Amino acid sequence: EIVMTQSPATLSVSPGEGAALSCRASQNVNNNLAWYQRRPGQAPRVLIRDASIRPTGIPVRFSGSRSGTEFTLTITSLQSEDFAVYFCQQYNSWPWTFGQGTKVEIK
Amino acid sequence: QVQLQESGPGLVKPSETLSLTCSVSGGSMNRYYWSWIRQPPGRGLEWIGYMSYNGATNYNPSLKSRVTISVDTSKDQLSLRLSSVTAADTAVYYCARHAYPEGSYSHFDSWGQGTLVTVSS
């Protein structure tokens, strides 16, 4: 089973600032990685698929990148609605696995 | 946009069977794969298993002996049964749709809000 490790667990950011969230895979997952956002009381939504592709409707301030087995979700100029929990998921190898999540909170 | 909604008992006794239903609206269940995912308190998300529109199943080895997932396309519902539960099965349970028709190796493009199930006597 591929282990996904996210860091940091919590990130304190002021509105308008940027944030970089990390997700590391224990093995190669190619570009088969997604990032999700979960706000309290809401269903998770996919922000990034295939490591760097933004689905229709996702704001351009969200971007994803990959370097080997290290993946980064970058949020530029955080808005109030961006303070939430973010988690990554690999779908390269069965069983699908997730990171522990990063909580982005208001500083 | 397809919408998913989980429902079921919020409290289950140890050794009993947890049963949840996921109702799908705004789209057909046909041609897609449907998964259950859970998150215990303070821990990461865990994929439980999937069933496809045509009945194919695949379960996480860690839960395989206790899990049954079924789909009723006529009712647009996905179901989960987890037997012999313990406190370790306390979690928020989500249903989710695999993004691409007729494929399981994908991200999840639609999720339910999740439902908390507590295992306690």
Structure explained in plain terms:
The complex is a heterodimer of chains A (107) and B (121). By secondary structure, chain A is mostly beta strands. In chain A, 0% of the residues lie in helices and 47% in strands. Chain A has strands at 4-7, 10-13, 19-25, 33-38, 45-48, 62-67, 70-75, 85-90, 97-98, 102-106. The termini of chain A are far apart. The mean pLDDT of chain A is 96. Chain B has 121 residues and is mainly beta. The chains are: A mainly beta (107), B mainly beta (121). Chains A and B meet through strand 9 of A and strand 10 of B.
Please summarize what this structure is.
The complex is a heterodimer of chains A (about 110) and B (about 120). By secondary structure, chain A is mostly beta strands.
Number of strands of chain B: 11
What share of residues of chain B is helical?
A: under 10%
**How many strands appear in the DSSP assignment of chain A?**
10
Q: Most extensive interface: pair and counts?
A: A-B, 25 and 24 residues
The percentage of residues in β strands of chain B lies in: over 45%
- Measure the end-to-end span of chain A: 36 Å
Q: What is the H/E order of chain A?
A: EEEEEEEEEE
**Rounded Rg of chain A:** 13 Å
In terms of DSSP E residues, the strand content of chain A is over 45%
Overall pLDDT of chain B: 95
**Tally of individual helices of chain A:** 0
Q: Could you say which overall geometry of chain B the principal axes of the C-alpha atoms support?
A: globular
Rounded mean pLDDT of chain A is 96
